[in-house]
Amino acid sequence: MDPAALEMIRSLPLWNGTPEVTVLKGGITNRNFRVVDGGRSYVVRLGDDIPVHHISRQNELAASRAAHAAGISPAVIHHQPGVLVLDHICGRTLTPEDVRSPACLERIVPLVRACHRETGRHYRGGAMIFWAFHVIEDYAATLGDAGSPHAGRLEGLLRRSRQLERAAAPFDIVFGHNDLLAANFLDDGERLWLIDWDYAGYNTPLFDLGGLASNNELGQDQEKWLLEAYFEQPLRDELWRRYQAMKCASLLRETLWSMVSELHSTIDFDYAAYTADNLARFERAYERFQQLEA
Predict the structure, then answer these.
(1) What is the pTM of this model?
(2) In the 3-class helix/strand/coil scheme, how is the chain assigned residue by residue?
(3) Which residues belong to any copy of the Aminoglycoside phosphotransferase domain (predicted)?
(4) pLDDT per position as a tens digit, 53-64
C-alpha cells in the first residue's frame, strides 16, 4: 500500500470513521482500491488526466454517471481532482475464457448494445470523440518525437492504418466504451456490469465489437454470431469486411497505446510484452483482412 495513496483515501470527506482500504488488482491507467466504511463498500480510483493517452478524468466522470443512469455501471458516490469513488459491486471480473463462452457472449451483447444506445442520452456536457485512426496518428507522432525504439515501424503502420480507415467506411456513430477488455465486465452472479470509462466517447460500434473480439480472441464463427446478434440481422459480406478493418484498427491502436506507455507510464506493468503480443495479433488480423481484400 502506497502511504500517500492511503493518506489521500482516508482524507476523503465521506467516511464515517477510519475506513479499511485494500488494493484492487488491475488498472493500467489508474490505481484502484476497495474501501469499507460503515458496513458499505466502495471502489476508489486514483488517477489524473493523461493527455498522451487522451484521458480526461472529467470525461470519465461524465461517462460513468451516464452509464449508471443507463443502468449498466455502478453509481458515482464522490469525485474530486484525481479521485473517483464508485459504489462497489460484489462480483468478479471476467476473463477472456469467460467472454469466449457462448452463454457469456449472449449476456454481453445486450449490455454493449445498451451502452451504445442509451449511455449517450444521459451524458451531460461536451462529449469526447474517440476516433481510433486519429489516436493512431497521434501516438505515432508521440513515438517519433520521443525517439521510441519502435520508430522504424511507424511509417508502415501508419500506411496500413490509413488503408483500414478507407476500408471501414461508411461509419455509424454511437456512444462507445472503447476498451472492452474482459476485466471491464463485472459479473455479480445475477447480471453483468460494464466498468472503467477512461476512453468513453462517440465512435463507430464496429470498434467496440472488433475490440471485444480481438481482446478476447473470439473465433471466426463467434465473430459472425456476434455481429448478427448485435445488429439483429443476417451478416452481409460488406459489413464483414468493414468489421475486419475496424478489428485491425483496434489491435493497432492497442499496440501503439502500449508503445507509448513503455515511454510514459509509471505503473508497474510489462508494457514491452504487451506491445509484442498485440503487435503479433495485429499482424495476424491484418493478414486475414488482406485476404478478404484480394
Answers:
(1) 0.94
(2) CCHHHHHHHHCCCCCCCCCEEEEECCCCCCEEEEEEECCEEEEEEECCCEHHHCECHHHHHHHHHHHHHCCCCCCEEEEECCEEEEECCCCEECCHHHHHCHHHHHHHHHHHHHHHHHHHHHCCCCCCECCHHHHHHHHHHHHHHCCCCCHHHHHHHHHHHHHHHHHHCCCCCEEECCCCCHHHEEECCCCEEECCCCCCEEECHHHHHHHHHHHCCCCHHHHHHHHHHHHCCCCCHHHHHHHHHHHHHHHHHHHHHHHHHHHHCCCCCCHHHHHHHHHHHHHHHHHHHHHHHC
(3) 21-244
(4) 999 999 999 999
